[in-house]
Each structure stands twice: as C-alpha cells, then as structure tokens.
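Changelog entry

Holo records now carry the ligand SMILES as an explicit input line rather than a separate metadata file. Below, a converted record for zinc ion, shown in the new format.
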Amino acid sequence: MERTYFNPAVETMADDARLAMQLAKLEEQLAYVIERSPFYARKLAGVTPARVRSLADLAALPFTEKSELLASQTAVPPLGEHLAAPVESVIRVHASSGTTGRPSYVAITRRDRDAWSEVVGRVYWCEGVRPADVIIHGFGLSFFVGGLPLKDAIEEIGAMFVPIGVGASERLVTTALDLRATQLTCTPSYTQYLADYCRDKRGVDPRELGFRRVMLGAEPGGGIPAVRERIARDFDAKVTEGLGNADLVPVYAASCDENDGMHFLAPDHLLLEVVDPETGRALPVEDGVSGELVATHLDREAAPLVRFRTRDRVTLSTTPCPCGRTGPRIRCLGRTDDMLIVNGVNVWPSAIRDVVEAFAPETTGAFEVPLSEPPPKVAPPLRLRVEHARGAVDLAALKKRLEGTLHDKLVVRADVVLVPEGTLPRFEMKASYLKREYEER
Ligand SMILES: [Zn+2]
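Structure line, unchanged by the conversion:
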C-alpha cells in the first residue's frame, strides 16, 4: 500500500505531544546558541534555558531581526557572530538578497543539510511527489534556497529531479516533452510567463506539456484561489503551494490536495509564533489568529535563530484536515514590506492580484502599482495599471467594474488605467508589483 505521509510520526502528532517535544528541543537549542554563538551569548545574557518552559516564557525573549544578521555578518565576516558551528563543519552557503540588495549568507552543516532534505521531503510528499515522478525544477539554482535544497529533497524521495532553472523556457518545454515530466515546481508568476511562451512562441497548448501537478513557491500567488484556478486551467493540473524562508528552512509548509492553507511540516525543527506586527505582542496560537510569523529553530547546527521575525503576514487555521496531518495550517498574505496603507486600510498586492485575476479572460492578470512616494502610505486613489486582453472591447466599462470590485473587496478607492496586453513586465523569478516611480533617497 502506498505511504500517505513522508514522516507519519511527525506529521500526525497530537497537539500536546508536539508542544512537549518542541519545548524540550527549545531548551537544548537555547543552551547551544548561548554557548556557541557570540551573538546570542550577548543577546540572551542572563537567560537560563531550563527556565524557558512555555510559549509565554519564549515570548519574553528578544526578537532577532534580519538587519541584525546583516550587521553581524558585516562586523565579523564572512558568516557573522551568529554562526554557532566551527567554520570547517560548514558544507555550503546559500544567500538571500535583503531589501538593501546586499546578500546575506546562510551557512549549513552536513546535519543541517540532512534536516532540510527531510523537511522538504515531507513538503513535496504532501504535494503529491512519489518516486516514479519526473519533476521539472524552474527555480534559480544559484545561491537560492529554492535551488539545491529542493534537489536534495526530491532525491531523498527518490523521484527524478530535472534541473532547468530560470530563463530557459525553450529548454523547459523540450525537456518536459522528452522526459514525460509529471510535475513542475516554480513561482506563480513564472507559470503565467510559461503559458504565454508556449502559446505565443512555440504554438503549443501548455496542457500538452503533460504536468499532472504544478507546485508553487517563493511568492504568495499560490494561496489565491483565482491564481490557482488559472494555473490549473492553463496546465490542466492540480495546483499546490509551499512556504519557506532562506534563514529558517527552505520550505517548511505545503498545501495538500484539500488546498485549505499550508500544513506546517517542520514542528521538530521550528517553533512558530504569531505576533502583532505593530506592538510585537505574541498572540495565542489558535484558529483564525492573524499577524506576523516569528520562528525559532529547534535543531539547527550552523546558524540557529531565536524569535526570528519573518515579515510574513499570515493567518493560521487549526481545524482538522481530511488528509490527517495535524498542527496549524498557514495562509500567507504577503510580506510586510509589500503592504500598502491607503487611508488607513492595509492593502496587499496579493489581494489586488486576486481581483485582477478574477476578471480573466478580459484581463491578462498582469498589473502594477505605480508609487510616487515610498511605501507603505499611499495617498488615495490607489493607482493601478492593469493589462486588458486583446479581445476586451468595452474598456470604459471594464475600468468601472474593476474599480467597483476593488472598492468592494479591498475597501479602497482605485484609479485603474488599462494598458494593452504585453505592456507590463512578466517575471520569471519573483514578481514585483510595486513600481517605484520616485527618487530613492
Ligand atoms: Zn491536509
């Protein structure tokens, strides 16, 4: 009989057993970082790990900000004072580009690599990957945690990993057909680029590529029903998504076929908290709680982090899932950095995308938000450029309906400028909907 779970013991653990395991591992991890990392020896001076016995105790510890990791790396190059393992045990570095554009290096040991393979293995198994599958990998392989760690995990499952990377649509199409690929894993925005490429440049219906599943990651689109439906239609495939973080675990949550939020699949490696993004106050982990995701490593060797602020805005659900996996499911709205505030109302590019996608086939799904001042505050009306499809005729009526729906759904006044199909950029990597049209200071 086929296995349902990659790691049944962890994926179906009862809530109280999970928390007990996490708190035991937390104590060990705190003792480890205080002893091994000069960064945490200073930051957690006076903390006795054995006295951190509950989530409330954890919430009394300070946050770790991404900016602190960059400063630590600058002060003590190359890997920073938060490195907690001897440099000779580091087997690989990955990098994430911070908002400042300077790369931040993430080191892993052999043990960390194995842990990542195990967790990302659970992720892809949850998304339906089995040993007989052929996976086309359409993320960047250089530095990005969506690259080599995904290769390791897919090999761990025993499926066939096909390293295509980005910017190689011609090779992707040829290889998918040659190898009878069964799955595609890439960003939501790339699926749109690829579908257009197939139809316009190759004269191929994207459904002919034969993907049974499309597994999305690296940006929020996969959580949006209209986006998922478009991709499912374009490729005639099931669509699921994953969530990860370069500084934590490459992918630690994924949706199952129920598509009702992403199962948190790394409870033995990360302890999650949800905090109020403005005050930093920890919120109770319960059904419907909404805020910023904060994570603490439980079993990391090279660079464990304590109360790391992810800047991801999430909502958790804790109702049972028919697939039998326990623990919270995560819905990610987007990154705090991408959020706009219009007349005091929070507006996420992912929510705008949801509206714009719902107007397909009159719209292509492509849009951008021109900003004349640095975000997050935007003076109303919220200006948008939206691509209309070639067939769309009554543009004045379309503009009016778009603005009406944006007002109903987002509670903001919008000013939509319709532009012809093909005007706005397509993104092969992460999509960027905010167009900064002001002088950077
Ligand atoms: Zn499920």
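Spot-checked after migration. The longest strand covers residues 308-317. The CA atoms of residues 263 and 418 lie 38 Å apart.
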